Amino acid sequence: MQEKWWHNAVVYQVYPKSFMDSNGDGIGDLPGITSKLDYLAKLGITAIWLSPVYDSPMDDNGYDIADYQAIAAIFGTMEDMDQLIAEAKKRDIRIIMDLVVNHTSDEHAWFVEACENPDSPERDYYIWRDEPNDLDSIFSGSAWEYDEKSGQYYLHFFSKKQPDLNWENEKLRQKIYEMMNFWIDKGIGGFRMDVIDMIGKIPDEKVVNNGPMLHPYLKEMNQATFGDKELLTVGETWGATPEIAKLYSNPERHELSMVFQFEHSLLDNEPGKEKWDLKPLDVSELKAVLSKWQTELGNEGWNSLFWNNHDLPRIVSRWGNDKEYRVRSAKAFAILLHMMKGTPYIYQGEELGLTNTPVSSIEELDDIESINMYHDRIERGFSVESIMESLNAKGRDNARRPIPWTAEANGGFTTGTPWLALNPNYKEINVEAELQNPDSVFHTYRKLIQLRKDHPIVVWGDYELLETNSNVFAYYRTLGEERWLTVVNLSDSEEEISVDARFNKVLVANTEDEITDLHAYKLSPWQAFVVELSGN
Ligand code: NOJ
Q: Contact, 334 vs 301, CB < 8 A?
């Protein structure tokens, strides 16, 4: 496989509303992000995936875009954006923009024109029908909304304020490519493509993901925009299997660099049901799924590695132990993921071991998906208790609380009133405290990133799962003569491993436990380490 910069990259996702507020309005902004670039450089990341900062009424926190070529006033100006790109570049950090082109905001000029003037070309940029079918919105309720004025229904797979675009319209596709080139010309490092597997939909046949035109559209996009540039492109593809991932990311097919697969992320809900229908994680399933992804892409695709993003709960609360083993289990998940093959993504605050923020009432939440689900489930007869249990486990606001920078009021995130309250534990868990403590979660992330930079085995080594007790996740990476072993105990109990190998040195570990003979080694709860094996 031809080596590209993004094979070696470590990406950090910034959710702008919650990262750092520079002007005291309680909302994170672009100058706030720029002011924290030195912190990110210290962590060692080499790219930032910036969640949407475009002009938007913020019905879905910016995933509802009203103007792709303007910056939302709450985040700053285009000059602020240019400055962020330039300042990041000085620190060898590239900016990956969020490309949300499955839908726009209903306040986008195209949709406004489409509604006001049904004879306009813009009408066909969206999907209109005289009668709705029974497709559901991902944010609850029907996917169709009636427009009184024109007497037709428009399609929206997300909120009513996010009408789906009609990719069958060639003129629309060209407009999207022009807009992408506007950003490419600004010197960005790539695009993260929101729900990109939905653009080939055929609503009348209820084909939503992976429609027949999806890959032809992506090939066309590649040629019209980033094909001859060195950009990182990553598609959000919820239903991808390794075979599907190869269609996107096989370099010979000239589509994307990689995709986000979510198979591991679906392991803790009842199969076939909604994400709110909770089921405990079975570690052996996690081992099977991640190992499949590690081995099956071969040279025909590239993995992205992640536990968290702005849609998912915090990993340490989700599958770790965010109480007595918070630090250890946060580090265990970091070690487990960062020694795998693929490009790692860190979601803001993950490097601090931030936890979920349980609430007792829906009033304390802001997220449209959570609020819609609450009302939908109340109507369907669910108890408030069960709904709150699901929201506290999986609701998106768990990941969206502002970043605690210090132990001061509101974690030093803002001098005003934060748009969403911080997790009350910010006095103990914050950036300043993490930086000061050499044993913090932050320093483990920093070390893991440095190991990846220093050792090609982390980027290129072959992966092999080691058969172990079900709660222990252990795997080898091998490159030429070099062989590393990662061992992670994903449980609150002691476990044992037996490996017929000797090692030279410990590369990273999350406990002070002495690591001796691997033939019958007792792992303490959540213990994790990486060793370099000796040649025989
Ligand atoms: C996926 C994004 O990650 C999520 O936050 C958003 O709500 C939907 N796509 C709609 O854009």
A: no
d(CA 300, CA 247): 9
Distance (Å, whole) CA 172 – CA 97: 20
Q: Say which residues have a Cβ less than 8 Å from residue 409's Cβ, sequence separation at least 6.
A: none
Q: For atom 6 of ligand 1, which residue has the closest CA?
A: 63
Residue listed under structure tokens 């000085």: 90
Q: How far is the CA of 194 from the centre of ligand 1 (A)?
A: 6
Q: What is the pLDDT of residues 351-380, one digit of tens each?
A: 999 999 999 999 999 999 999 999 999 999
Structure tokens at 183: 């950003």
Name the pLDDT band for 406 (thresholds 50, 70, 90).
very high
Å from CA of 414 to ligand 1 middle: 25
List beta partners, residue 207: 202
Does the structure show a pLDDT above 70 at 240? yes
Q: What atom of ligand 1 comes closest to residue 100's alpha carbon?
A: 11
The helix or strand, by DSSP H or E, that contains position 217, with its residue range, turns out to be: helix 214-224
* Residues with active-site annotation: 194, 236
Tell me which of 197, 311, 366 to substitute to probe ligand 1's pocket, judged by most ligand atoms within 8 Å of the beta carbon: 311
Phi first, then psi: give them for residue 111, nearest 5 degrees: -75, -40
Identify the residues whose C-beta falls under 6 Å from ligand 1.
60, 63, 100, 158, 194-195, 236, 310-311
User: What pairs with residue 463 in β-bridges?
Assistant: 477
AA identity, residue 149: K
Average of pLDDT values for 488-509?
A: 96
- Cα distance from N-terminal residue to C-terminal residue, the chain: 29
CA of 42 to the centre of ligand 1 (A): 29
Compute the radius of gyration of the chain from its Cα atoms: 23
The pLDDT of 180-197, averaged and rounded, is 98
**What would the mean pLDDT of 175-193 be, rounded to a whole number?**
98
* Cα of 62 from ligand 1 centre, angstroms: 9
pLDDT at 318: 98
b/e code 400-423 from CB counts within 10 Å (16+ = b)? bbbbbbeeeebbbbbeeebbbbbb
Pick the closest to residue 110 from 154, 77, 72, 71 (CA basis). 154
Helix axes of 283-296 and 242-249: crossing angle, nearest 10 degrees: 40
For residue 525, pLDDT over 70 is answered with: yes
Tell me the per-residue pLDDT of 343-354, one tens digit each, with 9 for 90 and over: 999 999 999 999
- Output the pLDDT for position 232: 98
Query: Stretch 475-497: mean pLDDT, rounded?
Result: 98
Residue whose CA is closest, atom 2 of ligand 1? Answer: 194
